[in-house]
Amino acid sequence: MAKPYDLEMSRLADTFAWAEQSDVDRLAKAVAAASTRPLVAVGSGGSLTAAVALAALHQSISRHLGTVVTPLEVANAVIESDCSYWLLSAGGSNVDINRAAKVLISREPRQITVLCGREDSPLAELCGEHPFVDLIVCPPPAGKDGFLATNSLLGFITLLTRSYLDKKTWTGVANAVRPTLPIDSKIVSRWQKATAPLWERPTLLVLHGLSTRTGATDIESKFVEAALGNVQLADYRNFAHGRHHWLAKRAAESAVLALVGEDDMALADRTLSLLPKTVPIARLDFAGDAPSAQLLSLVAALRLTEWVGRARSIDPGGPGVPTFGRKLYHLPLPRSRPAELALTLSPRLTMAIRRKSGRDVERMPEAELRQWVAAAKDFRRRLTTSTFQAIVFDYDGTLVDTRDRFLPVTDGIAEGLNGLLTSGVTLGVATGRGKSVRMELRRSLAKKHWPNVLVGYYNGAEIAPLDMDDCPDGRDGCAEVLHALAGRLAADPELRVSARQTNRQMQITLEPEFPLPDSRLWDLAQQVLLRGNYPGVTVTRSSHSVDILAPGVSKLTVLERLRERLGKDVAVLTIGDRGKWPGNDFTLLATPFALSVDETSVDLDSGWNLGAPGQRGISVTCEYLASLRLGVKGARFAKGALQ
Q1: Among 123, 243, 376, 395, which is least packed, fewest CB within 10 Å?
Q2: What is the mean pLDDT of residues 310-338?
Q3: Which residues of 444-581 form beta strands (DSSP E)?
Q4: pLDDT digits 0-9 by tens, 465-501
Q5: Measuring CA to CA, which residue among 286, 331, 408 is closest to residue 94?
Q6: What are phi and psi of 290, to 5 degrees?
């Protein structure tokens, strides 16, 4: 684990060049998805610095809350389902980050992203078992860090910064940071000269602003972890609230390091001018915008660690780890003890109730939990004792992953659907899309089965068997019933710049031009609708768009057509992913035999998600398909399935 710290510093330029040239497409997609909601960054040790940087980027660029927590906080916190949770770990092997990942996966928040430096780590292996987790593995070229996080930290934060910024802005950041990376840089030499007097004092007070908090955090982390000295952190205004008193009593043993970005330059000037003249003060100014200052302050922290180590005869790359320290490192995180009734429930039933109720089952009052358990078991009993001659599926998020929605269905899904059709089960597909779904289904399903697949295009506006070539017709422009509304939507000032509008005969689709909060497009469309007189028109939401539907248009129409063909009393199973209102599967999953693979409604009688804990989307669809047993009268769930 020990590695000379100066060797690690010699690789910084190579690491930065690697991070500049790496493909960040998957990371940028994950950032775009996170940019519509609050973000919680999880890290410990050196990765806590990366978490601080991520939270700062998220707040300054997405304009949503970004906060930092440790794995211990995650393990004992209430998990907000609508937040994005990001876990950062260079090695992916420590017990804390792996326990935090298990807790988060078991709670299934809207997004989990893991940025890890090792493909063969326990963390990467765990995430591979849960496809809804965005696992992004980026091994830095310098290899494993020594005792302290160095090149992995610079690499991770550089990749994150690139992913949040457009190309032009990133170029400006890179031009500001690059000159500080070579060992013989004039800028770094000035930093070294300015800070040299600080190492004569045992205690260092580090003052920082919003853009330099990352560097300050890393200084504190490295100084304490490598036993380089005492460090106190404060932003410029928090320092004024009592923390300055340390200098009144202990000026002789203290020094001050001020990290100054352009946004807090005036405040730093006034603060430093008031400090006692007997206290050594070093000021490092970082030019450029907030992302530039953040990366520059990190580079400064890495270099400062090198210089103080040299001054105090400690190699930060290998300070030595005591036996008690190794034992501390491997201690497990505490686990909360559920209520007695919760202990008797299967993991699947516990998860089903959590998804439906939005509550922690372990903390529910026993009387309330008994009601939920009874409702879940009653639904499962009705579901598993019925025989289905037809099944209607949503498409995006149910048969294909929303992240890869223009790719063919997976082999597992195709095999399951062809098996149902071979056994005589009639299938329906209800989708907000048009011709593209027809083409993808034809690639995946045997041609002989096409007549027995009924497809409802544009949320059921046009319905036809899969073998029909001229449906949907694909014409642009709205029918008379939506014509005026389409004009109003197109004229809305905010929608005009934030959404791409596609007009079909019986459906108007709005897709965001850039990341927006999940509900924003729906709110805007609903506002336009409520200001006019459009009786019967409805607005629904999917993971990637908002659809405005003409009166009478519904995914339920596909189910009704199947019953016309098979008989009105036939049991039809419906499966979708957006069962929560105003999701576009809300009506489809309000039927008596409805299963969700993701979001659920509040209806206790139907629309439950009985998938395995920590699974979502097509992996749950595959599980449902695998649980069905095929007979001459239709399909039914195997005995003991979904328990």
Answers
A1: 243
A2: 80
A3: 453-457, 462-465, 499-503, 507-512, 538-541, 546-549, 572-578
A4: 999 999 998 788 899 999 999 999 999 999 999 999 9
A5: 331
A6: -60, -45
Return the H-helix or E-strand segment holding 261. strand 254-261
Given a cut of 70, whether residue 18 has pLDDT beyond it is yes
pTM of structure: 0.91
Neighbours of 213 (CB within 10 A): 24
Q: What is the pLDDT of residues 163-177, one digit of tens each?
A: 999 999 999 999 999
- Residue 579 near residue 586 (C-beta atoms within 8 A): yes
How many Å apart are CA 132 and CA 112, to the nearest integer?
8
Burial class, 337, CB count within 10 angstroms (exposed 0-12 / middle 13-18 / buried 19+): exposed
Which three-class secondary structure string do you get for 338-404?
A: CCHHHHCCCHHHHHHHHHHHCCCHHHCCHHHHHHHHHHHHHHHHHHHCCCECEEEEECECCCECHHH
| Cross-strand bridge partners of residue 255 | 204
* Residue 640 falls in which region: left (phi positive, over 0), alpha (psi -120 to 50) or beta: left
Backbone angles phi, psi at 144, to 5 degrees: -65, 135
Instruction: Grade residue 84 by pLDDT with cuts at 50, 70 and 90.
Output: very high
Q: How far is CA 34 from CA 396, 516, 585, in A?
A: 19, 10, 23
3-state SS of 299-314 is HHHHHHHHHHHHHCCC
DSSP 205: E
* Numbers of helices and strands, H then E, in the chain: 26, 21
Structural contact between residues 463 and 428, judged by C-beta atoms closer than 8 angstroms:
no
Q: Rounded to the nearest 5°, which phi and psi values hold at 63? A: 65, 25
Cα angle 530, 394, 350 (rounded to 5 degrees) comes to: 95
pLDDT of 314: 93
Distances (CA, A) of 310 to 11, 199, 231, 429: 18, 10, 17, 68
What is the enclosing helix (H) or strand (E) of 84? strand 84-89
Question: Worst-scoring range by mean pLDDT, 55-64, 513-522, 583-592, 629-638?
Answer: 513-522
The predicted structure's pLDDT at residue 616: 94
How confident is the model over 624-633, as a mean pLDDT?
A: 92
Residue 193 has pLDDT above 70, yes or no: yes
The tokens of 168 are what? 């032009």
* Widest pairwise Cα distance in the chain: 92
Tell me if the bond preceding 408 is cis, omega within 30° of 0. no
Closest by alpha carbon to 71, among 53, 58, 232, 92?
92
445 contacts 421 by C-beta, under 8 angstroms? yes
